[in-house]
Amino acid sequence: AQTVTQSQPEMSVQEAETVTLSCTYDTSESDYYLFWYKQPPSRQMILVIRQEAYKQQNATENRFSVNFQKAAKSFSLKISDSQLGDAAMYFCAFGTGANSKLTFGKGITLSVRP
Amino acid sequence: DAGVIQSPRHEVTEMGQEVTLRCKPISGHDYLFWYRQTMMRGLELLIYFNNNVPIDDSGMPEDRFSAKMPNASFSTLKIQPSEPRDSAVYFCASSSRGVWTEAFFGQGTRLTVV
């Protein structure tokens, strides 16, 4: 069974600064995918970024980038130039092609200070 | 496309009553997922369908929960009888190719059982 661990329940960042959210996972699969989802107060789950395990290059999406360390089974999200709209709950998720379902971490609440 | 549509947005019911949650996935998506979100347990996958067929229902907590997908554009999650511990936010999500593509979430149904 796969597990996803987000050990930090809360983090805070100053507007325009950079913050890194941590995530580790455990799996015996070799073909899998990792995701970061954002859940703002509106409750809508929104995909932020995804990473295919077979790709060595870290994924980036504008101000969002990941640090994927496959050997260490670590998948952290870096948010640069933080904005007030980035305040939300962030979930790390793991998926494998073997069963097509996502396993989510417990999430981390990010607050952005003006 | 309007995205994944869930109804109702909020539901308050008395213990012992039957509750039916509804979901309309994005047209063309072959996968449909039902998740439950609580403070204690985070996001849990309850069941998922591929081409209207239930593939994995191992997350369904007990026999009081049932899910159906009679056609590609509609799914229901039913709880009968409901209990206070079922209070949670229930999300429906759909994707075109399982974990190989993004899962799009609905806005969720907040269920309160009193």
Overall structural class of chain B, as computed from helix and strand content, comes to: mainly beta
> Which residues of chain A form runs of ≥5 with pLDDT under 50?
none
Global mean pLDDT of chain A: 93
Mean pLDDT of chain B: 94
Major β-sheet of chain A, in short?
6 strands, mixed
Element-level helix/strand string of chain A: EEEEEEEEEEEE
Give the termini separation of chain B.
36 Å
Q: Specify the number of helices of chain B.
A: 0
Oligomer: heterodimer
First and last CA, distance of chain A: 41 Å
Task: Give helix % range of chain A.
Answer: under 10%
Q: Which pair of protein chains has the largest interface, and what are the residue counts?
A: A-B, 22 and 21 residues
Helix content of chain B: under 10%
Largest sheet: number of strands, sense, barrel closure of chain B: 7 strands, mixed
Taking pLDDT < 50 over at least 5 consecutive residues as the criterion, the unreliable ranges of chain B are none
Structural class by helix and strand composition of chain A: mainly beta
| Rg of chain A (CA only) | 14 Å
Shape call of chain A: globular
Alpha carbon gyration radius of chain B: 13 Å
Care to describe what's here?
The complex is a heterodimer of chains A (114) and B (114). Chain A is an all-beta fold and 114 residues long. Chain A is built from no helices and twelve strands. The N and C termini of chain A lie far apart (41 Å). The model of chain A has no long low-confidence stretch (mean pLDDT 93). Chain B has 114 residues and is mainly beta. In chain B, strands 2, 4, 5, 6, 9, 10 and 11 form a seven-stranded mixed β-sheet that branches. A four-stranded antiparallel β-sheet of chain B has the order 1-3-8-7, with no helix packed on it. The mean pLDDT of chain B is 94. Classes of the chains: A mainly beta (114), B mainly beta (114). At the A-B interface, strand 6, strand 10 and strand 11 of A face strand 5 and strand 9 of B.
